[in-house]
Amino acid sequence: MKTYPPDKIRNVAVIGSGGTGKTSLCEALLFKAGAISRLGKVDDGNSTSDYDSEEIKRKNSIHTSLLAFEYDEHKINLLDTPGYIDFVGEVYAALSVVEGVIVVVDAVSGVGVGLDTIWGEVNRLDIPKIVVINKLDKNQADYAAKVEEVRKKLGKDCVPVQMPIGKEAGFSGIYNLLKPDGVPEEMKSDYETFREMLIEGTAEVDERILNDFMENKPIPEEEIIEAIHKGIEENHVTPILCTSATKEIGIKELIDEIDYFLPGAQHNKLAKNNGLAATVFKTTIEPHVGELSFIRLFSGEIKPSSSVMNISKGKEERIGQISTLRGKAKIDLPAITAGDIAVLPKLKITHTGDTLGDKTGSELPKTVYPEPVASLSVKPKSKADQEKMALGLSAFMNEDPTFKMHYDPETKETVIYGMGDIHLEIILHRLKERYGVEVETGAPRIPYKETIKGRAKGQGKYKKQTGGRGQYGDTWIEIEPLPRGKGFEFVDKVVGGAIPRNYIPSVEKGIREAMGVGVIAGYPVVDLKVTLFDGSYHEVDSSDMAFKIAASMGFKKVFTEAVPTLLEPIVDITVYAPPEFIGDVTGDLNKRRGRITTIESDKVVAKVPLGELTKYATDLRSFTHGRGTYTFRFSHYEEVPAGTKDKLVAAYTKLKEEGGLLHEK
Ligand SMILES: Nc1nc2c(ncn2[C@@H]2O[C@H](COP(=O)(O)OP(=O)(O)OP(=O)(O)O)[C@@H](O)[C@H]2O)c(=O)[nH]1
Ligand SMILES: [Mg+2]
Questions:
Q1: Which residues have CB under 8 Å from 315's CB, separation 6+?
Q2: Ligand minimally distant from the alpha carbon of residue 22
Q3: Which stretch of 224-228, 390-394, 468-472 has the lowest confidence by average pLDDT?
Q4: 528 versus 658: which is more confidently predicted?
Q5: Residue 163 Cα to ligand 2 middle (Å)
Q6: CB within 5 A of ion ligand 2: which residues?
Q7: Are 504 and 589 in the same domain?
């Protein structure tokens, strides 16, 4: 494929809720443009975009696919994004490199769930867009109602520029509201409504139209078309179009509108750079190909078999081949030029988010991805796989900015974080496929802590003096609570050499070790002061080991006498949901022992125990029909209520009885 100047390139992300027909629409566009010779189907597993084995199995998109094609002296780089909220990271990546967006709306079920977060990002980036109402061939498809819904949910700047000819199975073609002539009788009333929306929308951006409209004068069609153009470019007007992807209606018109309405690549705000500037917006690992880096070039040029600077890493990167993709099909390019999107195989040091440029270049702004909301604790089925698991998971972190992994040395467990249960499920499936590592999963262990509310003192004595060299250590300690967050304090008040100086560090060590696994529920002990005030020793039999054991035994005993209790982590949570769900959100947080601090029309802020939030991502999604999102961060520790304490103690007792270990030593 040849190279194109930026004004002939259209970089377009296709977005929309799950199942609205994005992939089918892309397929129809490729077919109509002659880029593929057969119209594939998502349901038959042979669409160009959903080629990955998991996508074929699940019959929906998981990854953003690059679908490059040429049409009428233009090059169009479609980025078909997944609609399901678990893969929102893929959508953010696509949005960071396009000048135009196609929002696909289902003519039956409407805008759908889960578009809110993405819509926020589209508006933040101020990207011009086209709305497509698809599936107009289906039973109960209702264009007028969906236009109303789009205007209500996505904004009044969305105006119809087309209307369908025929309804449902009788949907047969497109009526262009910009070139109205001979409106069929049965379409007249809808026509009047849509035409008024169109004029009002363009009047917002063009004073001539506004004046003519106020004075009830006829408005020249060229002025409307001009105003639409200007309105889209300035992002004050969003045209609404009609299609059926599977019946291939409105597709030719859509390609024309992409060329005609959406801005060329030269309009990107980053195109003004001097010299080479490119961003790596996505990385995949393709079977038989290896790592592929998706790059968007804002300015300059990269030739095959050359070197560029990876500015983020401060190192040179070798470039081999340059190609583009149409689904999984690779198409060679003679170079990547300003404005274009391409893929580079087998880069050594480069990962998602990196900037490629000249030696003197500076790093491009990085995309800020939403914080992961789902988590799982994972453990390899075979212990020997521990290292391979860590290797695989950290490779996935480089590929996918919405996936995170964390090893908690305190609980000795690996926790993975993602955008939803399905996201994590797919990650683990990939871990098995690519690295051969199978894992067991569980809810992540909540980092409870143990502490005391009272004071107590007592003796810890370890004595073994039968045959050979014996063991002797004897300690007296007092323990008392410290304020929350103060950790641990050890005070040595031994006088008169009751315990020789050289054994004191072993006493402290013994206590610290005992604090690692609390006596009441196996959690680490915090916020207390231990004073060593007396003891005794034996000339021959005393040793570091004997004093360590004695101190540890003493601590465990005295701890239980000092009114021990459990602490739980409390987090600050902010939940966003449409106003109609705010009541449910609040009620649910109350059930989770949450203390609500703020309620707004579409937002609730609360303090909630972390232990009550397991499965929150899934629950929130289900009772808000996918519309709710949330973020949280650690706030502080608080004493658990009696009921929770009993449960945790019972779980620990059971575990000990079964011979299980809460902490591997
Ligand atoms: N009747 C009818 N069905 C359609 C049309 N477009 C898509 N479909 C069907 O709708 C279903 C979902 O289509 P996809 O193209 O996978 O939708 P998507 O938006 O890419 O879905 P995700 O990638 O999972 O978000 C499939 O069964 C399609 O055959 C259409 O115009 N008319
Ligand atoms: Mg899809």
A1: 309, 349
A2: 1
A3: 468-472
A4: 528
A5: 25
A6: 22-23, 61
A7: no
The residue contributing the CA closest to ligand 1 atom 24 is: 60
Q: Which residues' Cβ are closer than 6 Å to ligand 1?
A: 16, 18-24, 41-43, 60-61, 82-84, 134-135, 137-138, 244-246
- Residue recorded with tokens 């999102």: 629
CATH number reported for the structural domain that contains residue 491 in this entry = 3.30.230.10
How far is the centre of ligand 2, averaged over its atoms, from the C-alpha of 61 (Å)?
A: 4
Per-residue model confidence (pLDDT) at position 409: 63
Residue 466 resides in a domain: yes
Task: Quote the ligand 1 centre to 482 CA distance (angstroms).
Answer: 61
Q: Which ligand is nearest to the CA of 20?
A: 1
Tokens of 576: 């966003």
The atom of ligand 1 lying closest to the CA of 43 is 27
Rounded to the nearest angstrom, the distance between the alpha carbon of 83 and the centre of ligand 2 is 7
Chain Cα centroid distance, residue 196: 40
Question: Is 552 in the same domain as 575?
Answer: no
Q: Are 346 and 310 in contact (CB under 8 A)?
A: no
Counting ligand 1 atoms within 8 A of each CB, the residue from 15, 42, 81 with the most, and so the one to mutate, is: 42
Q: Is the pLDDT of residue 363 over 70?
A: yes
Ligand 2 center–CA 353 separation, angstroms: 24
609 and 542 both lie in a single domain: no
Residue 616's H or E segment, with its range, is helix 616-623
Residues 385, 516 within the same domain = no
Give residue 404's domain range. Answer: 374-442
Longest dimension (CA), the chain: 115
In this structure, is residue 633 part of a structural domain?
yes
Inter-residue contact 537 to 473 (CB < 8 Å): yes
For 319, other C-beta atoms within 10 Å of its C-beta total: 21
- Percent of the chain, pLDDT > 90? 71
pTM score, two decimals? Answer: 0.78
In the reported structure, the alpha carbon of residue 42 is separated from the centroid of ligand 1 by a whole-number distance in angstroms of 7
Does the structure show a pLDDT above 90 at 368? Answer: no
Mean pLDDT, range 444-449, rounded to an integer: 83
Using the atom order of ligand 1, give the atom closest to the CA of residue 16. 19
Reported as a pLDDT band with limits 50, 70 and 90, residue 411 is: low
- Our count of domains for the chain comes to 4
Rounded to the nearest whole angstrom, what is the distance from the C-alpha of residue 47 to the centroid of ligand 1? 11
Determine the atom of ligand 1 nearest the C-alpha atom of 42: 16
* Nearest partner of 254 among 245, 263, 246, judged by Cα: 245
How long a stretch of residues is the chain? Answer: 665
* Shortest-distance ligand to the CA of residue 19: 1
Q: In this model, does residue 333 exceed pLDDT 90?
A: yes
Based on the fold, state whether residues 73 and 37 are members of the same structural domain.
yes
Identify the residue with better confidence: 655 or 315: 315
Instruction: Quote the pLDDT of residue 662.
Output: 46
Q: What is the pLDDT of residue 663?
A: 43
For residue 373, pLDDT beyond 80:
no
Mean pLDDT computed over every residue of the chain: 92
Write out the two tokens for 340.
Answer: 């274009």
